[in-house]
Design goal:
It holds the Pfam family SQS_PSY. By secondary structure, this protein is an all-alpha fold. It has helices at about 5-20, 25-30, 35-55, 65-80, 85-100, 100-115, 125-145, 150-175, 175-185, 200-220, 225-245, 250-255, 260-275. Helix 7 (about 125-145) crosses helix 8 (about 150-175) and helix 11 (about 225-245) crosses helix 13 (about 260-275).
Length: about 280
Amino acid sequence: MDHVKLFTDTSLACSKLITGRYSTSFTLGIRTLDSALHLPVYAVYGFVRWADEIVDTFHAFDKATLLADFRRQTYEALDTGLSFNPVLHSFQHVVRQYGIDREFIEAFLHSMALDLEDQSYHPGLYSEYIYGSAEVVGLMCLRIFCDGDTALFERLREPARRLGSAFQKVNFLRDIRSDYEERGRVYFPGVVYQRFNDATKSEIEADIKADFEAAYVGIVQLPRSARLGVYLAYVYYLKLFYKIRKLPAARILGERVRVPDNTKLLLLLGSYFRYRLSRI
């Protein structure tokens, strides 16, 4: 028995388990990808999820020290090709297999570090944070989807960034109350939580709408092995965005908007039929 392969396969299975426990929506999206893409994308999610847990969950611990140690272990795994942290072992395996850029990893860890401090997000820092926290995650996945096709990756780089940006901004809008009340954060530049109103909300929504439109251009050019899964994520977030857009600012501050499970199923079925009819 090849015990090194067994160790790697077990580590990948751990990342799959983490994804299933933390995000039913993301798991559903991954399952609509070609089966060869499942474990690599689970590995990326596991890495991102664990770093996010450090900065958002473990308030009774020294989070700066935890994140610094996580960063050290990440680069040690990338340099050596081994980690006894199964999340990092599976991640380094996928980074090496698909040539995922270290710049993406560094940008992501930098954005996680920004969450450890109180920030006033001016436009430049806001763009920097979104790039590191969301856009590069899409770019990591795009490396997997393109599987060595550098020309295709470069053609789809900007739409992938815009899709990650749209998803993150929708999250910011949906979670504006919890981010402020639980973490003291308001990500939107120049927005004062106590003065958040319909006019401000409309400006943010116009920016998100432009991101969605730019992202769709890239989705229809993805390899078919990845297209349905990415499109499903797109329509899910678009549905969430439409629900948020219909509500006044006061409602957004008072409740967390969700897409019900039965609606998610309908979105999946609709996306599948569009895919089968080659409309995406």
